[in-house]
Prior knowledge:
Distance between the termini: 40 Å
CATH superfamily of the largest domain: Transferase(Phosphotransferase) domain 1
Helix content: 25-40%
Oligomer: single chain
CATH topology of the largest domain: Transferase(Phosphotransferase), domain 1
Structural class: alpha+beta
CATH architecture of the largest domain: Orthogonal Bundle
Number of domains: 2
CATH class of the largest domain: Mainly Alpha
Number of helices: 11
Strand order of the largest sheet: 1-2-3-5-4
Strand content: 15-25%
Order of helices and strands: HEEEHEEHHEEEEEHHHHHHEH
Radius of gyration: 20 Å
Amino acid sequence: MDDGEVLKKRGYIMGINLGEGSYAKxxxxxxxxxxxxxxxxxxxxxxxxxxxxxxxxxxEIEMLARxxxxxxxxxxxxxxxxxxxxxxxxxxxxxxxxxxxxxxxGAIPEEIARKMFNQLASAMKYCHELxxxxxxxxxxxxxxxxxxxxKLTDFGFAKRLSRDDDGRVILSKTFCGSAAYAAPEVLQGxxxxxxxxxxxxxxxxxxxxVCGSMPYDESNIKKMLKLQKEHRVHFPRSKILSVECKDxxxxxxxxxxxxxxxxxxxxxxxxxxxxxxxxxxxxxxxxECSQSQIRSLFGKESISQPSDxxxxxxxxxxxxxxxxxxxxDQMQRTxx
Length: 336
């Protein structure tokens, strides 16, 4: 029985292909019960690698069934057929993902980026309070609903934290994620605090949101790691950003894990608070309207067009990073 027939029996009319990998694909579908479009992730267990089936798929299913937050995609149904296919039916990001949006429209003005990033931070606080870590935060995994609200998705690398007898978090040794969003401790293959790793990735996301470019050039992993460890964050001169925004990004991209912000400190940061009035530090580029509606802004074409470099979404999942050349070989890149 093909996927269309399987879904039809469950009350879904299959639509277009949204993405496809070696053992999984994502389709759009219309739910006759919900009266709306949904996304269906279809995993072929016969083609999937053993470590994925034994570790990552069960974790993903557990996480999706557990998390319920306004800024996390809703999971409507998970079922498996006798033919060895798993179907995960979720909310559809009708406006695509954040990376696609930024590549098309350019950097997001701070007052709108603040609202969107607050949604992401709220979702991460919810997860971290449940001792759930995502470990693959990136713009591609932030979907946009019809009102351009953030919806966190893809819990394929998520897990619940393990603790020792004294209640201390057991460090993670599974080095996963994408090169552009990976913290220096992960790039070096050092056992890491997963929540702290999530914060670094959030810092990369915010940089991309307000700058429209990547904070580091991941085409040279060794050079990127050197810049990260020296705590060097170069903001584009063409972007006029507030001191508060730069400060938040700088403290999330902190290579010293003992000094990197936690999620509560991110949410309490001054930049995250809605300004009561426009301050001198909240500067905008000429022609930007700081009070415009999100929808009206997003309906406009961006003045500055992104490069045509290919977007790459391949993830890494490896237990031992012997050297940085290995990282460079196994991590592909996301270009803006």
